[in-house]
Amino acid sequence: MIPLPCIDFKFLKTIHCIAIFWAVEAVSLCGSDNAVFEGPPGAKFVFGDEFSGAELNQKIWGLGINKKNLQNEAVDCIYKKENITLEDGHLIFTQKREPVPVAGKTWSKERTFTYSSGGVHTQKEYL
What we know:
- By secondary structure, the chain is an all-beta fold.
- It has strands spanning about 10, 15, 20-25, 45-50, 60-65, 75-80, 85, 90-95, 95-105, 110-115, 120.
- The protein has a domain at about 10-20 and about 50-120.
- The protein is about 0% helix and about 45% strand.
- A hairpin with a 2-residue loop joins strand 7 (about 85) and strand 8 (about 90-95).
């Protein structure tokens, strides 16, 4: 059985999720220290976060879906740290309409965004 992230989509409010990452390798989980985690056949547990602290662990997670916190051209929201919270083991992204447009960057230019949201990326690759 593959553990699925707990995601609760509440449009313009919050998204709850847990992070579970799997890397496929040609080794068995049987007898390993990671045997308590079930994944797809041939998978090895490589990284997880229970989001049990008071705030996001910045050694593991960075703001935005990429290291530069740049958005795609067609997206109308910017990622802000204040829109990322932890509650009872859930990572919560809040999306909201900004009363005053917020300055930010896309891959090709600077612009203002009408909405803000939360987004994270891992600080390093987990393979």
